[in-house]
């Protein structure tokens, strides 16, 4: 689909994001169901998804809430998990930084893994796109994603409120995390970061208030950054040795 106008850019964004629906529907439903299983009511669960709109951070917070971790630690852990959004924003800025403030603010709120990946792929493939076309494409990518995140969070919450406690669905949270991170192992830096984070989290498992999660996350990020820097230095033609 050729992009010649903002309308065609918006339509292409929608089309490119349609495959993500297969992921968003079960994830949102599972979050809604597990949130009510953890003790949140339907309104609280839906508000959680609307305000935070970040699957990994929401599942992290939910896991810690079930363990009666202090609120400050829950917020810090969710923030640590969501730090990648700062990196997403930094890499999107050269492409859409010239857009009006209200559009950038809305894009910041709606930036999720799916919209970021689709947008960056398109921007790099078609650098001739204008800023309005890039923004239209970005909003197209979130059109099938964001509303479905809200809707199926609500569906999951409504279903979850009728699920018997004897079903014990807590096990689904760690399984969900495994499904979320598995496709991210694309480079040696990713693998090294994950491996170090796992090892440190096991070592720090007895740290009070689940702070081992933050410690492990920081250790993983530092390791990943160092490995990536090392890989850059080893590239042919690199001046840094």
- What's the end-to-end separation, in Å? 44 Å
Count of helical stretches:
13
| Count of distinct structural domains | 2
Approximate shape: globular
Based on DSSP secondary structure assignment, what is the total number of beta strands? 0
- Strand residue content: under 5%
> What class do helices, strands and sheet pairing give?
mainly alpha
- Unreliable spans are none
Describe this structure in words.
This protein is mainly alpha-helical and 241 residues long. The protein has 2 domains: 6-180, no CATH class; 185-241. 72% of the residues lie in helices and 0% in strands. It contains 13 helices and no strands. The protein has helices at 6-17, 21-37, 42-52, 55-66, 71-81, 84-96, 101-110, 113-125, 131-142, 146-160, 172-181, 188-203, 212-233. The chain starts with 5 loop residues before the first helix and ends in an 8-residue tail after the last helix. The mean pLDDT is 82.
């Amino acid at each position: 689909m050729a992009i010649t106008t903002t309308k065609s850019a918006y339509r292409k964004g929608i089309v490119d994001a349609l495959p993500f629906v297969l992921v968003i529907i079960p994830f949102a439903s599972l979050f809604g169901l597990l949130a009510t299983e953890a003790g949140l009511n339907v309104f609280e669960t839906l508000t959680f998804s609307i305000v935070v709109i970040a699957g990994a951070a929401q599942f992290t917070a939910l896991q810690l809430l079930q363990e009666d971790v202090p609120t400050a630690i829950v917020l810090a852990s969710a923030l640590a998990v969501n730090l990648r959004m700062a990196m997403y924003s930094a890499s999107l800025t050269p492409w859409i930084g010239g857009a009006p403030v209200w559009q950038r603010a809305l894009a910041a709120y709606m930036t999720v893994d799916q919209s970021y990946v689709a947008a960056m792929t398109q921007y790099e493939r078609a650098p001739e796109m204008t800023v309005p076309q890039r923004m239209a494409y970005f909003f197209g990518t979130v059109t099938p994603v964001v509303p479905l995140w809200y809707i199926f969070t609500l569906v999951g919450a409504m279903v979850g409120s009728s699920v018997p406690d004897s079903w014990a669905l807590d096990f689904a949270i760690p399984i969900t995390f495994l499904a979320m991170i598995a496709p991210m192992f694309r480079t040696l830096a990713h693998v090294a970061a994950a491996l170090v984070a796992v090892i440190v989290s096991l070592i720090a498992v007895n740290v009070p208030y689940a702070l081992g999660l933050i410690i492990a996350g920081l250790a993983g990020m530092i390791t990943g950054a160092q490995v990536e820097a090392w890989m850059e230095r080893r590239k042919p033609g690199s001046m840094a040795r």
